[in-house]
Amino acid sequence: MSLPGLLALLALPFVTLAAACGGEAPPAESPHPRQPLTGALRDALGAKAGEAKDAGAPDRPYSGHGAGSVPKEVIAKFAPPPLPEDVSRTFQSMLDVRAPSSGRLSPDGKIMYLTWNVTGSNQLWRLDGPQRFPTQMTGGEDPTILREIAPDGSFLVLSRDRKGEENPGLYLQDAKGGKLTTVSHKPGVQSELQFVSDDGRFIYFRANDVKPNSYVLYRYDRTKNEREVVFDQEGIWAIADYRPLGPKSPDSKLLLQKEVGGDMSEFYEWDTAKKALTPLFGQGEREDYDAAYGAKDGEIIVRTPHLGEFQRLYRWDSAQRKLTPIVPEIPHDVFAFGIDRSKTHIAYSINDNGYTRIKILDARTYKDVTPPAIAKLAGDHVRFGASTRDGRFLALGVDTGKAPQTSYVYDWKTGSLTSWHVPSTPEIDTSKFAMAKLETYPARDGTPIPMFVRRPDPSKCAAHPCPVLVHFHGGPESQELPGFSPVKQAFVDAGFILVDPNVRGSKGYGKKWLHAADGPKRLDVITDIEDVSKYIRANWTEGGKAPKIGVWGGSYGGYSTLIAMTMFAGAYDAGASVVGIGNLLTFLENTAPYRRILRINWYGDPERDREALLKLSPITYVDRVSSPLLVLQGATDPRVPVGEALQIHDVLQRKKVPSQLIVFADEGHGAQKRDNRVLQFGHILRFFTEHLLGSK
């Protein structure tokens, strides 16, 4: 992941997300053998006309995504009910334990701009010096994120979304604050910053306003308030980096990235003066590449696993057209890298079994020049942020696992490391938070599966043995990480052990592990979801009694939850699915068009892999459900359509399985607004307390 991509990721609010997973029916030794196909699967495979539907088939067909895909009265019917006061207070208090993003510095290093959710949604704040009182720059209910600061520091480029639709607009604001000026914001269109020219005149951005599954690259002229097309070949294009053709030239060489699948890219160079496109690397490989121009002409810094098992940093020479490693080979991924505009330093982070470490190279010699002050920073995660354009100042974030992230700034000129703000922990002693401990459990084929475990004090377990909540991450190619989490601590404080597995298909453990679950191959490893419950029941007993186990997650984690409750019915005693996929076919048919292109390599092709997708769909096994299930969904979700939740709920209601559906009318792929986050997590805790402990 390059620096712009990393910053976009770090700017996202915490939500329990994931995507879609699938899996094969358990082998013969499983206590939950395969049952006959339900009507849903039989119909999808092409049942004969006139044949009666089975009880498992959904009655509610749907089309498209977003709030407009279902009637308003349906959304209103499933609005979130109020929480018990004690549960609401718990999460209100925990959401006050927070810190802003690591921030971006003005060119002179005197002002830091931060994304912070103090008002209930992410907004922009300004610090006029270390430990100064913050000034709010933007407001309202729409999440707003800083994307760039003008080269001279005079204006800011902001991104603003509405109701979780993930169709952000692009805006300008004076660096001192004030009204926003629209660069581009259209309904149903994503407008995303690519870069600001060195003279500050041009704003380069991309938008899918011509076709929903293709992006045009534009250049907005601030002096004329006009935009022009820079590049409009069909595809999911982005600008990874740029090199001006001259000090006063309006033209540049653009390093273009074309996404051809999830974590699969090709790179090209586009000469804006000659209108010439030159292929560089990745063409036809379907491999993961991230890249940025290096310090020398004809040089590109590349992060890829192409030549080995793990992500590594390389130098690509345009003359020799080959990759040469610039960092040592280690059994860990280089998770992200960034190079400042002055091409002075290359910062990169290492994913060390889920823990984040950083190193810094000289951009010309590739020698390790990590300052001792940075090397001494300790925690679960030490992350780099943005550099000023001249490379003098570097923002850093440190997560100790015991407190919200603290932001620092390193000054390369003076060698000083300065803390810029103190996180908020009102009325709560975070030193008593449970640290995530790295453990493993065995899959049925003997493969050790990593998991992070947070345990309460044994005297504070909600029951004996202590009940367990297994939380699956999103993606599907994401990775569960240790680190500070007030939300997870709320479940630990309630007396639950919290388990975060990284099943096969997760990032951070090499290429083989990551691609073990691609498409139909997921059938071979989907049992990782059941095996963690089998391990816990067999090994975490007390007095010969196995603990109660709940399962939850969002997006792909929501899908994993649904698989756990359907295909592996009986493995878990209750489940809570947040924006989870119930049917991989209807999901791929109705998700946002650009996402469909980027998801097929993870889940499977709807035509070529149709039967496997159905075998991997929770709806196929919904007749097996016997334990309570909570389903939460955002109405405006462009990734997992609200129809996925409705069709699962229909069948559960018909089967009279204890279940509940909650739909947030003003949220998309997971709750972002503070009040909705309280409701989302509060209802999950309420549900598990009721169904695992027998209390309300």
- Helical/strand content category: alpha+beta
Reported by name, the CATH topology of the domain at 11-93 and 438-693 is: Rossmann fold
| β-sheet strand percentage | 25-35%
Q: Architecture of the domain at 11-93 and 438-693, according to CATH? A: 3-Layer(aba) Sandwich
CATH class of the domain at 11-93 and 438-693: Alpha Beta
Total count of strands: 35
Spatial order of the strands forming the largest sheet: 28-29-31-30-32-33-34-35
> What number is the mean pLDDT?
90
Helix content: 10-25%
CATH superfamily of the domain at 11-93 and 438-693, by name, is: Alpha/Beta hydrolase fold, catalytic domain
Question: What is the chains' assembly state?
Answer: single chain
Q: Please tell me how large the radius of gyration is.
A: 25 Å
Q: Helical region count?
A: 15
Distance between the termini: 44 Å
What does this structure look like?
It is a single chain. The chain has 696 residues and is of the alpha+beta class. It has a domain at 11-93 and 438-693: 3-Layer(aba) Sandwich (Rossmann fold). It has 15 helices and 35 strands. The strands form eight sheets. An eight-stranded mixed sheet has the order 28-29-31-30-32-33-34-35, with helices on both faces. A four-stranded antiparallel sheet has the order 1-2-3-4, with no helix packed on it. A four-stranded antiparallel sheet has the order 5-6-7-8, with no helix packed on it. Helix 4 packs across helix 15.
